[in-house]
Amino acid sequence: MSLGPVMLDVEGLVLTDADRKRLKHPQTGGVILFARNYQSPMQLKALVEEIHSIRNPRLLVAVDQEGGRVQRFREGFQRLPAMGLLGDLYDKDQQRAVELSQTIGWIAAAELLYYGIDLSFSPVLDLGHKISSVIGDRAFHTSPDIIVQLANAYIRGMQQAGMEAVGKHFPGHGSVEGDSHHVMPFDRRELSTIESHDLQTFKRVINTHLTGIMMAHVIYDKVDELPAGYSPFWIQQVLRQQLHFDGIVFSDDLSMSGAAAVGGYTERAKVSLQAGCDMLLVCNNPQGADDVLDYLNDYNNPVSQLRLVRLHGRPQVKNNKLFGSDQWIKSIGSLQSFMQETELMQSGDLFES
C-alpha cells in the first residue's frame, strides 16, 4: 500500500480504535503529533512505534518542533530557542550564529529521530516583521540574506542527523498581520514587492536543498484571489516553474480559519490537490478528516507518492548511542551555554563592557 495524500492527527497519548481505522485508510499518508499526544519520551516512542506498525511503507510521523513558543515536546526533550534569538546573535557574531544554527538543527532532528519522528515542519523561512504576531520570533530575522544563511545552516544540521527539511510558509507569512489559525489574512502588496523580499528566502534555500514546502493560508489579493495553498499560480507557476522546486508541497492545516475560503472540507481538499499540493493536513476535526478520506477514496497520484517516501527519517547515529555520543554532548553544551546567556541578557544581568 502506497502513502496517501492526507496527514491526520490522533486523539491522545495512545491510539483509539477510531484513530487506527483512519490510519489504515489507503488515502492516509502521515500523522502529525501535538502537545496533547506527548507525556514522556517513552510514551512517545511507544505511540510512534504503533503508528509505524500499521502500514507498509510506514506512515510518516511529523511534528512542529521549531523551538521557542512552538515546541510540542518539552519535558524530557532539549529546550530549543526561538529562531529569532539566532538572528539576534547573528547581528553580534555571525560565525557563531551560523555554527549554532547548524548545531541546533542537528540536535532537534537527532532527538526526534531517536523516538521515531520522521520530520519536523521547519525551518520557518518567513520574514520576522513585527506586524506578524503569529510569526514574530519564529523567523530567523527580517533580512532575507541573514535568513538564508541561518536556515541553510539549520538544514545542514537536520540532514546530518538524517532528517529532511520542510520550509514554511510559502510565499511568505511574515508580512501580514492576521493569524490564519483564526482569520483569513490578506497581503495587499504587489507581486514585485513580494518577489524582491519574501520570495528571496525560499528561492535561495530551494537552490541549496529543501525537500518540502508548506503553503501559507494567506490571500495575496493583488496577485491572485485564492489563498496560496489553493492557488495554481503560486504552486505551479511560481514554485514549480519559476523556482524549479521538485519536492513535496504541503497544505497548511485545512481546519484553520484561513483555509475556509473555498467551502467545506471536501472542497478544500479538491482545490488544494488541483492547485498542486502533494499532501493535505487535516487536524482537530475528525468529521472533516473522514469527509476528506471518503471523498479521496479513488484518488491516485504516483508522482506525489514518490516524493513522499523521500521524507522517511534515516537516523545517522544508532539510537542506542545518540545520547552518549561525543557529538551529542558537545552540541548540548553549546546549546545550553547559549540558552543561559540569552536568559541572562533578557533578565538584564549580563551587559556588554
Structural description of this entry:
There is one protein chain. With 353 residues, the chain is an alpha/beta fold. It has one domain (60-287, 295-347): Alpha-Beta Barrel (TIM Barrel). The chain contains twelve helices and ten strands. The strands form three sheets. It has a five-stranded parallel β-sheet, with helices on one face. It has a three-stranded parallel β-sheet with strand order 7-8-9. A two-stranded antiparallel sheet has the order 4-5. Helix 2 (41-53) links the parallel strand 2 and strand 3 (60-63). Helix 3 (83-90) packs antiparallel against helix 4, helix 4 crosses helix 12 (326-347) and helix 5 (144-161) packs parallel to helix 7 (198-208). The longest helix has 22 residues, at 326-347. The radius of gyration is 20 Å and the shape is globular. The N and C termini lie far apart (63 Å).
What descriptive keywords fit this protein?
TIM Barrel, alpha/beta
Number of domains: 1
Largest sheet: 5 strands, parallel
Which fold does the CATH topology refer to? TIM Barrel
Task: Indicate the radius of gyration in whole angstroms.
Answer: 20 Å
SSE string, helix = H, strand = E? EHEHEEEHHEHEHHEHEHEHHH
Which homologous superfamily in CATH is the superfamily?
A: Glycoside hydrolase, family 3, N-terminal domain
Strand order of the largest sheet: 6-3-2-1-10
**Any idea what the CATH architecture is?**
Alpha-Beta Barrel
Helical proportion? 40-55%
Highest CATH level, the class: Alpha Beta
Structural class by helix and strand composition: alpha/beta
Mean pLDDT: 92
Number of strands: 10
Number of DSSP helical runs? 12
